[in-house]
């Protein structure tokens, strides 16, 4: 039972860490490259 709890906590932390990283990239980094991405899209 303890192994199941450990795995659940590990998965929760991994998933939320990825979401936080994605949020940071989308909110902070993406605007920096918006012009270049727009040009590439044309």
Keywords:
mainly alpha, 42 residues
Task: Spell out the blueprint of helices and strands.
Blueprint: H1 2-29, H2 34-40
Describe the protein in words.
The protein is 83% helix and 0% strand. The protein has 42 residues and is an all-alpha fold. The chain has one domain (2-40). The longest helix is centred in the middle third of the chain and has 28 residues, at 2-29. The mean pLDDT is 85.
Brief description of this entry?
With 42 residues, this protein is mainly alpha-helical. Helices cover 83% and strands 0% of the residues.
Could you give the order of the helices and strands? Answer: HH
Amount of beta strand:
under 5%
Ranges with pLDDT <50 over ≥5 residues? Answer: none
Total number of helices: 2
**Based on CA inertia axes, which overall geometry fits?**
rod-shaped
Our measurement of the CA-to-CA distance between the termini, rounded to an integer number of angstroms, reads 54 Å
**Assembly classification:** single chain
Structural class of the helices, strands and pairings?
A: mainly alpha
Number of domains: 1
Query: What percentage of residues falls in helices of 4 or more residues?
Result: over 70%
Number of strands: 0
The overall average pLDDT, rounded, is 85
**What is the C-alpha radius of gyration, as a whole number of Å?**
17 Å
Biggest sheet layout: none
């Amino acid at each position: 039972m303890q192994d199941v709890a450990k795995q659940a906590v590990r998965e929760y932390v991994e998933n939320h860490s990825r979401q936080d990283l994605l949020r940071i990239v989308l909110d902070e980094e993406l605007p920096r490259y918006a012009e270049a991405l727009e040009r590439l899209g044309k």
